[in-house]
Amino acid sequence: MRPPKDLVEKVESRPYDVLESDEARAEAGDNEMSLYHIIKPEINFPEGTSEYDPRVYESGAEQFRLFQEKGWLVQDKEENYYLYAQTMNGKTQYGLVVCCHTDDYMQSRIKKHELTRRDKEEDRMKHVRNTNANVEPVFLAYKDRPVLAALIAKYAATEPEYDFIAPIDGFGHKFWVISDRADVATITKEFSEMDAMYIADGHHRSAAAALVGAEKAKANPNNTGDEEYNFYMAVCFPEQQLTILDYNRVVKDLNGMTPAEFLKALEKNFVVADKGTEEYRPAEAHEFSLYLEGRWYSLKAKPGTYDESDPIGVLDVDISSRLILDELLNIGDLRSSQRIDFVGGLRGLGELKRRVDSGEMKMALALYPVTMQQIMNIADSGKIMPPKATWFEPKLRSGLVIHKLS
After folding, report:
1. Which of 40, 151, 182, 255 is deepest in the core (most CB within 10 A)?
2. How confident is the model at residue 114, as a pLDDT?
3. Other C-beta atoms within 10 Å of 385: how many?
């Protein structure tokens, strides 16, 4: 189910989890076709209404019904695949829109690298139950396959169904319908031969979709496994095309140390170099940029402070958490500490500088991005990445296609 071509820019939106309620309210404005009325339905109520109010979930479902009734979302007449391209800073990545079986998630053929929080799972489960649909897709990666690459290139050379520049970030989005039955069969065959896929973004959406699917299967004594609720929607990208940005840290205090004492303490595990007042970005793995009292510093982890053979211990997010945040600043639990915050790399080093210079934060730490290979190594090993380790960009736009569960 998707918007008519001439309405797509009215309907499409950012994903539900990258903006606050007031931002969604402002972006929707007086546009009654905005998908925010379905995915951020608290905007349908007076300001201050909790996004977890039962009436809010009911309103999302009612809006979804209304969008179909008014023809703002229309069911395709046959089962198709779709190709979705995103362009950021001159680089384009191409993802195939498919439905994954919930069993593949439950049996870890769709692999995760993050822990999920039960409260966030339950929030998405309520949304899926009420709308009876996957309104927003999950973002998956797969190991490159030449046959799919050739098929994608063929469609990318044709006129897209949708073609627009998103407001705010200016990223480009194109979308093709793959209805040729031979091409559909090729895609199905290629995916059936994959050993695994990897969740890049959308761990809570994956868990919620799979759990609701399992609920519905259990409630149906005649469940065959082929019913729509046994599947959930994903956009799947070849891993080499994906861009992972740095995910940086800002900290409110130095745990009682003066700046000079903190810099001295860092020298135990890092080679510390003053880089002056110009923004300094880490140039390689195991190098960090510290911004403190108007100056930038390079911190290079000394040999022996990490284990190259450990898929977790070799990560810069782990090195910085162990040797700086925990050992020196006594910040052990990144998920619960009120002394730390996280800044996605799209906002740049300037945002780190701004938050420190304003006095809100005392220091900032910029990290070198993790790689997709590192993520896959960790997922394959069954381990979990440290919190706030990955920031994928661009984000998928929501509302280009929706999967109904019945």
Report:
1. 40
2. 85
3. 21
